[in-house]
Write a structure and sequence with these properties.
mainly alpha, elongated
């Protein structure tokens, strides 16, 4: 049973590190570089093409990390409620950001391109900025919560 638990813990840690590392790399390195190297509209198209895969990574890694933490918790003497709570919140925020905000932002961007009325375009641009800001804030929250979970794991390493 101990060997199986090591595998479950490894998958938990791998999914969390892959998720938070991928989010951090994209948010703080890749996206800014894309917007620096390409014209704004082209950069937006490139990032828009990446986002569905970015969110899919979040969905897979969040559910994997949460489920493996729950599985391993059944075999521990104390439940890691702090980490479980943070991972549950991260999972919900990930799905909310990708499904609700992401789709709404993509649709708003499409409407900006097809709008002919300049005042309507400005209103849609403002709506897109709000959606982008909300998404960016939630992204930072997810990364921060993920770092707290990783810190909690490191702090409890080997503690029975």
């Amino acid at each position: 049973m101990e060997g199986l638990m090591i595998i479950v813990r490894f998958i938990n840690l791998l999914s969390l590190v892959f998720w938070i590392g991928g989010m951090s790399f994209f948010s703080f390195i890749a996206a800014p570089a894309i917007f620096k190297a390409l014209p704004r509209e082209t950069a937006g198209d490139v990032v828009g093409e990446i986002f569905p895969k970015y969110w899919a990574m979040g969905y897979i890694c969040s559910t994997t990390s949460l489920s493996t933490l729950l599985i391993s918790s059944f075999y521990e003497t104390t439940l890691p409620w702090f980490s479980i709570s943070l991972l549950a919140a991260m999972t919900c925020l990930s799905f909310y950001t990708g499904i609700f905000l992401g789709i709404k932002a993509r649709d708003t961007k499409a409407h900006i391109r097809t709008a002919t009325d300049q005042s309507q375009k400005e209103m849609l641009r403002e709506q897109f900025k709000i959606l982008h800001r909300q998404s960016a804030i939630l992204n930072v929250v997810i990364i921060s919560f993920g770092l707290m979970v990783l810190f909690s794991m490191a702090a409890n390493w080997g503690v029975k």
